[in-house]
Amino acid sequence: MTMRIVVNGRELTRGVMTSLGYILCRVLPYLGERFEVEVITPRGPLNPNAQALFVAPGLRRIESASDCCGIWGRLTFYMALYRHIRRSRADWFWEINHVLAPVPRRTRTAVTIHDLYLLHADLNSSRAMAWLFRLNLTLSVRMASLVMFPSQTTRAELHAKIGAPRGREAILPNGAWDRLPRPRLRGRWQPGAAIVGYLGRVNYWKGADQLLRHAEASDRVAQLFLAGAADQKFLTDLRARSPEIFHKASLLGPVSEEEKAAFLGEIDVFAYETRYDGFGIPPLEAMLHRIPVVASDIPVMREVLGPYAVYLRASAADPLGDAIARLEALDNAAFESFLDAAETHARAFSWERYASSLIQLLTADEPAQ
Question: How many angstroms separate the CA atoms of 120 and 141, rounded?
């Protein structure tokens, strides 16, 4: 008998898709080939990146009556979600958005802990939200049959801040999307004329303010392009405090998958100065497209990117310029070898491998047919 899995598809209706939504878009088609998958979403249109998802076999969208907007909307959506789990007698419920609620005992629960930035009041600017997230997360990891992390760093942080889960644990590194059109390669840039790009959320905890300041202060950066959804309050406050750091910068807003390839084809260096991350998909995608990566020297970046990125030195007077100078110091053969090694490294992170590992975890206790 085919196993039935219910998935929280809230991320698929967001106007701006997050990394959690991308994970669902990449992985659900593989699950649909093996299981009956019911994806419960809020009422309303799917994000453009998810609109083709439900033509895949084995996947069925069930649209809630709630739009999941506001406190009442979220509450009614989750009430409908858990009522459906009870009625459907699902074998598994997969929650990718960190927080579980009680489900019938016959239904096992898998939760993905993608990152824990909400535990940091300094990154989230709200102690109350950090406390609430800690409470919800603690309950989730106590109830879950299976807790999954994208990195060892995230797992270690959860153990340190919350404690070890009661159920099974697994590390499932995210994939990198390698089906984008290959961008036009620009060749090597002239010293002092590097075009630097960033792709991801434009906010404090992704280090956008640091990147803007470092690019503006560096003689080695000609232009900075930031692509991705921006926290408007963060940007407004930053422009009011430091308007001078935006002179070299162009904010492009969210980009589609097709626009992403074009964006990568127009930059020389990919800079990822994140303060906090659970994994880091964008720099891997840059590596796949042979764009050299400069990254924050934090544990999760070292774990995911390995020796295939150039790491910022906090002690340098010009951190971004110093990293770019180290790239410029490579001769052509060494530079190409560096890009080759980075591309090979990034190819090891595939969504097919992620899905295969997830299927093995979900069927580990499945009785033989």
Answer: 18
Indicate the pLDDT class of residue 369, thresholds 50, 70 and 90: very low
- Map out the domains of the chain with their CATH numbers: 4-175+350-362 (3.40.50.2000), 194-347 (3.40.50.2000)
182: pLDDT strictly greater than 80: no
Of 79, 103, 71, the closest CA to residue 90 belongs to: 103
H or E segment at 136? helix 127-143
Please count the other Cβ atoms lying within 10 Å of the Cβ belonging to residue 292.
Answer: 25
Hey, is 164 helix, strand or coil? coil
Bridge partners, residue 110, by sequence: 94, 146
CA dist., res. 134 & res. 140, Å (int): 10
The label of the residue with tokens 């659900």 reads: 28
Q: H or E segment at 346?
A: helix 332-347
| Contact by Cβ (8 Å): 215, 248 | yes
CB 128 within 8 A of CB 149: no
Tokens of 227: 């692509």
Q: Are 177 and 237 in contact, with CB atoms under 8 Å apart? A: no
Residues 6+ apart with CB under 8 A from 156: none
Confidence at residue 163, expressed as pLDDT on a 0 to 100 scale: 87
CB-based contact 208:227 (threshold 8 Å): no
What is the distance between the alpha carbons of residues 356 and 366, in angstroms, rounded to a whole number?
Answer: 15
Percent of the chain with pLDDT over 90: 62
- H helices, E strands: number in the chain: 13, 13
Q: Which residues pair with 6 in a beta bridge?
A: 38, 93
User: What mean pLDDT do residues 112-138 have?
Assistant: 73
The three state secondary structure string of 42-70 is CCCCCCHHHCCHHHCCCEEEEECCCCCCH
Residue with the larger pLDDT of the pair 124 and 362: 362
Structural contact between residues 311 and 324, judged by C-beta atoms closer than 8 angstroms: no
Q: How far apart are CA 122 and CA 314, in angstroms?
A: 20
